Amino acid sequence: MPETISSTSPAPALWSELLLRSLAELRELFASSQPQLNPDSTDDFARMFEGGRRLAQMLEDPDSVASRHDLMNALAAIRGYAELLTEDLGAEFADLNEALLRLLKAAQAADSEAGTPSADSSPPQRAITSEPGFILAVDDLQENRELVARYLSRSGHIVVTAASGAEALSTLAETDVDVVLLDLLMPDMDGHEVLRRIKEHPEWRATPVIVISGSQDMEGIIECIEAGADDYLFKPFNPVLLQARIKAGIERKRWHDREEQYREQLERNEKFIRATFGRYLSDEIVTDILERPEGLELGGDLRRVTILMSDIRGFTTLCENLAPAQVVTLINRYLGAMTDIIMAHQGTIDEFIGDAILAVFGAPQRRDDDANRAVDCALAMQAAMDAINVLNRAEGLPEIRTGIALNTGDVIAGNIGSERRSKYGFVGHAMNVTSRIEDKTAGGEILVSDSTLQSLQGTFSTGATREIKMKGINQSIVVHQILGADA
Amino acid sequence: MSNRPILLVEDNELNREMLVRRLKRAGLEIITACDGQEALDLMISEQPSVVLMDMSLPVLDGWTACRMARQDERISQIPIIALTAHAMEEDRRKALQAGCDDYATKPVDFPELLRKIGKLTPS
Question: Which of B18, B25, B105 is closest, CB to CB, to A47?
């Protein structure tokens, strides 16, 4: 069996194909107009098709053409009945008549070509080579299915056939099909319905569908293309055109498959990143990272960030007078509200240590307004305390007050820990400095370091400035009270 | 045309039926045979006006039947048109040598066949 089909177009060098195609077309037309035909014509059609069947059988297995006589008998029957039918049908069945005339033309070509000894060695004129594909041919007429299967399997495609829309759908459910060749005119579930179901199905949607129409019904074809059909053919179709369209369809499918694979890979990566970062980064930052993967180095890098630390004043003392459940209610209410505010300001929550919150602005994604957002965040946190305390009072819980420290400096950000347990975190002197400032904040107060104040754009109203001596750090630093944002 | 029937000798039933229908439609009376021996018997008993004889026949092939017909004086004058699948000039000669009066290649050009029948059956 040759790797590629060598067919001719439009000259009917492969007369047998032209003839079989015309017969296939006639079978289709016959099927739809049979009820209007008289019994004689119906009989003639049956005999003509019988001749076609015999011819196809002989062509299928070239060794069986033991005698030219048999071949000619089959051709003679086809031609004779076709001529009879054209005499009988005439203008009343214009479609059938035209198809019969096409058949007769093909038969004449067959007659002259099959009559010459070189008939079977007609020169190849145009070959379509394509990657072999898995083709599903859907047609209610067996002869048509066999014809298509013969064309396509000759060029190395694997062809499965379905005799009905329902059968086609169940084949699709079982196998990964590259291209669907879909006859539109079928009983029960017609081609339009099959097309609709394919294009509605999340997994089949991308499978290219080539619709085949028996009549030159452009309107119907346009409808199909609107419904998602990828290509179309009119019967009787040129085998080279069929090959070309199948090839294009297979290529489309392959592209889609590769794209799909790539997309799945990306999705897996995204899932991983969301799972890894989602717990302590706002959605926005995670999305940001995902959109610009090159902007995120997990290896650990030096970054300038603004660090926020907050702490409930006197929390340890408060807890001594509360039941454990009350402590948990109190702290969860507070941390919950604070988390929302920090995330809303695109801060990265590094960790909670008891009632203390450590958050960072500027990692993993640096922005120009990191310091501003950090200060805005701190102001919002303080502003939210009133509402928390209203709830606390209502439940008989003590009111709480928090102190917030902000510092801007360089830290090393990265996945810190061991292989078994690691998290995105920060280390560096600036972290320690922030912690020392935090120690000095009073309830309801926001203290920012000099470096943070200098990083701010716009103006904030500041209160007292003071110098802090810090344990273990051999220098004192200047901090400023932030009272609010200037409108 | 003559009121004697035309004898069609053809073993392929699809073609036989087809030709019978077409010939009848052309106003001719048809009898049929399926092999060479049956053809000879019918030629003797029915004296057809013309014989349309397929050459590849079972039991007794067309070539032989033709030769035998030509040697049998009861039927030696009945014109025979050979129907063959062979379009070669040599086949044509072979058919004429066997005693056929004319020759038509399958698939037959029906109007042409009718002309040939008409020529051989003077009214």
Answer: B18
